[in-house]
Amino acid sequence: MSQTEHSEYYVPAQSPWPILGAFAFFLIAVGSGTLVAQIGKTGEAGWGQWVLIVGIVAILAMLVGWFRDQIIESRTGLHSHQLGVSYRQGMSWFIFSEVMFFAAFFGALFYARLISVPWLGGASNNEMTNLVLWPDFQAMWPLTTTPDGTTTQAMGPMGLPLINTIILVISSVTIHFAHVGLEHNKRKQLANMLLLTIVLGCIFLFLQVEEYIHAYRDLGLKLDSGVYGNTFFLLTGFHGMHVTLGTLFLIVMWLRVLKGHFTPDNHFAFQAASWYWHFVDVVWLCLFVFVYVL
Amino acid sequence: MNSVTSTQDTIQHGSDQGHDSHHGPAKGIKRWLYTTNHKDIGSLYLWFAFIMFLVGGAMAMVIRAELFQPGLQIVEPHFFNQMTTVHGLIMVFGAVMPAFTGLANWMIPMMIGAPDMALPRMNNLSFWILPFAFLILLASLFVEGGGPAFGWTFYAPLSTTYSGDSTALFVFSVHIMGISSIMGAINVIVTIWNMRAPGMTWFKLPLFVWTWLITAFLLIAVMPVLAGAVTMVLTDKYFGTSFFDAAGGGDPVMFQHIFWFFGHPEVYIMILPAFGIISTIVPAFSRKKLFGYTSMVYATVSIALLSFLVWAHHMFTTGMPVYAELFFMYCTMLISVPTGVKVFNWVATMWRGAISYEVPMLFSLAFIVLFTFGGFSGLMLAITPVDFQYHDTYFVVAHFHYVLVTGAIFSLIAAAYYWLPKWTGVMYDVGLAKLHFWCSLISVNVLFFPMHFVGLAGMPRRIPDYSIQFADWNQIISLGGFAFGLSQLIFLALVIKACRKQGEPVADKVWDGAEGLEWTVASPAPYHTFTTPPKIQD
Question: Which residues belong to any copy of the Heme-copper oxidase subunit III family profile domain (chain A) (predicted)?
Answer without folding.
Answer: 5-294
